[in-house]
């Protein structure tokens, strides 16, 4: 039995193995691009991996094709009221080919915590030349608008 994983994409879960093709909601990647799918569970060599250990699971897929689903017709109708509405819908979809499903031998490198100091600190220890702070000029107030002068209305001559 081959290793397989349960992955989540677009609110749906799929069982995938290496070589599996699946159709998911549109993925915003170009055709031919590699995509990492989010694993929910992994079963390999009789071991079930779930929970926090999922960081070790790698599920990679290639975007094979972008396409559209079948057309659905929506028709609303209320009897004796003259109310009829018709609309159509086609879902945007992507076909993915799973290229790799595996359990990594070690955890990926952990992200540095905020309390750890970065390695670039030795450069920061050098005394920097202090520059005087530039003073900002106060914002200018817009000029007051003058009311437009009114023209006297012309009188019409009567015959």
Describe the protein's architecture and organization.
This protein is an all-beta fold and 159 residues long. It has a domain at 4-103. It contains one helix and ten strands; from the N terminus they run E-E-E-E-E-E-E-E-E-E-H. The chain has one helix at 121-124; strands spanning 4-9, 12-16, 21-25, 34-36, 38-44, 47-49, 57-68, 72-78, 83-89, 92-103. The protein has a four-stranded antiparallel β-sheet with strand order 2-1-5-6, with no helix packed on it. Strands 3-10-7-4 form a four-stranded antiparallel β-sheet, with no helix packed on it. The chain starts with a strand and ends in a 35-residue tail after the last helix.
Going by helix content, strand content and strand pairing, the class is mainly beta
The tally of helices reads 1
Basic shape:
flat
Write the H/E string, N to C. Answer: EEEEEEEEEEH
Structure summary, number of beta strands: 10
Termini separation (Å)? 107 Å
- Write down the Rg: 33 Å
> Unreliable runs, pLDDT <50, ≥5 residues?
none
Query: Largest sheet at a glance?
Result: 4 strands, antiparallel
Query: Strand arrangement, largest sheet?
Result: 2-1-5-6
The helix content, as a percent range, equals: under 10%
Overall pLDDT score: 83
Strand content is 35-45%
In short:
With 159 residues, this protein is mostly beta strands.
Q: Could you list some keywords that capture this structure?
A:
159 residues, mainly beta, four-stranded antiparallel β-sheet, 1 helix, 10 strands
């Amino acid at each position: 039995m081959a290793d397989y994983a349960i992955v989540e994409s677009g609110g749906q879960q799929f069982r995938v193995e290496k070589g599996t093709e699946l159709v998911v909601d549109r993925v915003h990647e170009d055709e031919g691009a590699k995509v990492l799918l989010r694993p929910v569970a992994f079963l390999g060599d009789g071991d079930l991996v779930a929970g926090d250990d999922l960081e070790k699971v790698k599920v990679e897929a290639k975007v094979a094709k972008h396409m559209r689903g079948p057309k659905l017709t929506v028709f609303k109708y209320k009897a004796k009221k003259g109310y009829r509405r018709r609309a159509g819908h086609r879902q945007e979809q992507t076909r993915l080919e799973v290229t790799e499903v595996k359990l990594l031998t070690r955890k990926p490198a952990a992200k540095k915590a905020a309390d750890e100091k970065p390695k670039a600190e030795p450069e920061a220890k050098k005394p920097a030349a202090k520059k005087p702070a530039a003073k900002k000029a106060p914002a200018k107030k817009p000029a007051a608008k003058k009311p437009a002068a009114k023209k006297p209305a012309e009188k019409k001559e009567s015959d």
